[in-house]
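A note on notation is needed here, since sequence and fold are reported together in a single record. The reader may check this reading against the record printed directly beneath this paragraph.
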Amino acid sequence: MLESDLASQPAARSRARQASIVRRTSLGMTVGLLIQYGLGMVVNLYVTVPQQDQGRGFLAAIGRALGNGPVALGAHAALGLLLILGAISLVIRAAAARQRAAVWLSVAGLLGIVGAAASGAGFVNSGADGASLAMALLTGVALLCYVINTYLAGRVPGGGSRS
């Protein structure tokens, strides 16, 4: 075996491990977004945003949802913040794995989640139905990005797929 082949084996294993992490994290984000989607439906159908929470701004809307809002609204906001952290982590992991498509999809997913959070805060702030629709649509965009990420990371040579 050539010396360069021996040197590249640990690097190839590291890339395969990173691809596997991207795949598992993308799958976790998919599950988290589906749970968030369900919580959003519960909030939309069964929770009335308190009148005093409207008109106070973005950060106040998030703070009030977490601290003083109905339980379902607080859980929805808390999971949304955790999903933002997970999305940031996934962008970093995809970059470390040097998977260009996964980086772009992860950035798009992160932007979708941040946009959904901003729309959600806008909904709490104004009660506008359009903000609720934007939140749902942007969550769907992020969900699609992570599903594609899960698929593509499984197809990378040595990316953790057993097929």
